[in-house]
Specification:
The protein contains 17 helices and 26 strands. The protein is an alpha+beta fold. A nine-stranded mixed sheet has the order 1-6-5-4-7-3-2-8-9. 43% of the residues are buried.
Length: 623
Amino acid sequence: MRTVGGGARHVLRGSRGAHGGERPPLLPRGGRGVSRPGAGGVQILPDHVANQIAAGEVVERPASVVKELAENAVDAGARRVEVALRNGGKTEIRVSDDGSGMNREDAVLALDRHATSKIRSVDDLRSVRSFGFRGEALPSIAAVSRFELHTALSPEEGVRARVDFGRIRSVDDVPRRRGTTVTVRALFHDLPARAKFLRSSAAETRAAGEALVLLALANPAVGFRLESNRRVSMDLAPARDWLGRIGQLWGDLAPTLIPVEAAGGPVRVRGFIQRPDAARARGGRRYTFVNGRPFRDAALLRLVDDAFRTTVVEGLRPSLFLRIETPPAAVDVNVHPAKAEVRFRDRESVETVVRDAVRDALAGLDSTKPVGIPGATPRAGRAHRTSSRGEPPAEMPQFALFVSGRDDAGEPGEPGADTGARGQGSAAEAPFAGPELWQLHDRYILAATREGLLIVDQHSAHERVLYEEIMARFEAGGGTSQALLFPVTLQFSPPEAEALEDLAGLLARQGFELEPFGERTWILTAAPQPHSRFDAERCLREMVRELAEGSPLVDTARNQHERLAKSMACKGAIKAGEPISPEEARELFDRLFATPLPGHDVHGRPTIVRLSVEELDRRFGRG
C-alpha cells in the first residue's frame, strides 16, 4: 500500500492546478490558502473555508448528497446503484456503483472544485446531457463531512482518498472491484448551524428516497437499491421501459395511465397521464423530465391542469409522467444551483406541444384502454367479524353515523336534544323539531332554525364527526373491524412503505388489519366501516400518501394519533357530490352538534353558515 500526503497540510483547492496526481499542499497562485490582507483588509479565504461556503449551494441536506453521488454513478455508466443510510444520512451515507471508476490521478483531481470530465469549454454547455458537469459535487460534499472515495478502473488500480471537512488526510492504493464507493460521515458536524435545520431521521430518509425515485424514473435501465438502518426500503431491478419502472414504484397507479405523445418542430413530448376518473385530491405523482433530466416547472403543471379542467372535478389533480425531448442547445440546464429548474429558449413551442399531447390523449379517451399492468385489484367486499381483540362485533358499524335507531341523539322529533351540554350550537341554532331537510347540489344540507337558515357542508361536517369518534376510539384502546371478503393487495412507494411501517400499530387500533406480503407490499384483510359508502382501500392509500409526504393538515398535528385521526377523517368522510337520504342528513346534524367543535372541520374551515331572518330581510329590502 502506498500513501501520499498525510496530516492537515493538504486542503481541497478552489480551482485546478496545471498538473494532476500528487500535489503540493498549498496552491501556488496568490497565496490561496494563505491569509494576505490587502490595504483595506481584504484577504483571500483559506480553501477549506471557501469550499464550505460554496457547499451551501450544493449540499442542503442528506438527500442532496444522495442525489449528487447517485447522479455521478449514472453518469459513470453504472448499471446498479446502491445507497445505504444511517439515521437518515446524518450519521452516514454510502453510495456504491458498478460504473467506470477512476484511476489514481482522476480520483485526486476530482476532489478539486470545477474538475470535471463532462465538459471542456463553454460551447460544451450547449450540448451537455450528463447530470453533472460543474465539478462541484465531490469537493462540496467533502468540505462539510468526513469523506471517503474508493474507486477503481480495475482491481489492480484501486485508490482510496480520505478527506476531513475539506482537508485531505490520505490517498492510498487499495485494490477493489471496478466501480466507485463514496462514504460520507458526520455531515455538517463542523457546521452546527446547518445541522440544526436537518429534520428527523425518518423525514431525511424519505427525502433521500424521493431523490432516488426521481433518478430511477429518469433511468429505467439502471437498478437502484436503498437501505436505511440496514433495512431495505427500495430494490428496483432494471426495468424494460418507463412504464415498467412506474409499475415497480407504484403498481396500483400503472393501470390508470394512458399514453400521451405529440411533436412540433424539434420538440417531442411522450409519457403518461392518469385517467380523469382515477384522479385524487391533493394531486398524484407529477414528474417532468427534459432530455432525461428531472426538473420542476409550476407553470407547465398549471398548463396541464388547464387541459384537464373540463374532465376533472375541481380540486383533483391527475398523476402525470412527461418526457420532453428537445435539442440540448434549446434548453439551459445551468440556471439553478441544484439543476432543479431549466430555461427553454423557445418556451412557447414547448408549452404548445405539451398542451397538445394532453388534449389529444383526453380527446381519444373513450377509445383508449389503460396501458398499465393487467389484472386490477378487485374492490373490497365486507363481512362482519369480531375485532382483533376477540370481542364480538357491535350492533352498529364501528363509526356508525347513518343509522335509524339512535340512543344518543334524542327521540325522533327532538334533533339536537343534547347539544347544549357538549356542542357550541345553542338551542336557538339547533334545527326545529322534525324539520324537513334539503340537500343542495349534493353537497350542502339546509334546515330552518328558530333564528333563520342553517347551511351545513356535508363533507366538512362529517370530517368533524369522524375525527372526534376516531380520537375517542384511541382513548378507549381501539375499535372493531370488518373482514374483507376479498383481501386487497397494496403496493406502496419507498417513502409510503416507511410511513406505513411506522403507523402500523395505530392503523391496527383503528381497524385496519394489514399483513406484510413481500417488499413494500401489504395485504389488507380487514377494515373499519365508518359509513356504508366507505372505500377502505382508497382511504388507506390516500392516508398513507398524505402521512408520508406531509401536508398542512397533518403537519400541524400534535402527535401521531392526531395525525392519523385528521387524515382518516378527511379521507373517510362522505364527499361533496354524494347524495344522502333525509335520515342520513338528520343523523349528520345530530352528531355534528354533539361534538365539542361543531363549527369547524379538521382543516379549520367552517362547517356551518348561518343566515339570520334579519339578514334575509335586508337582502329583500325589508330592513
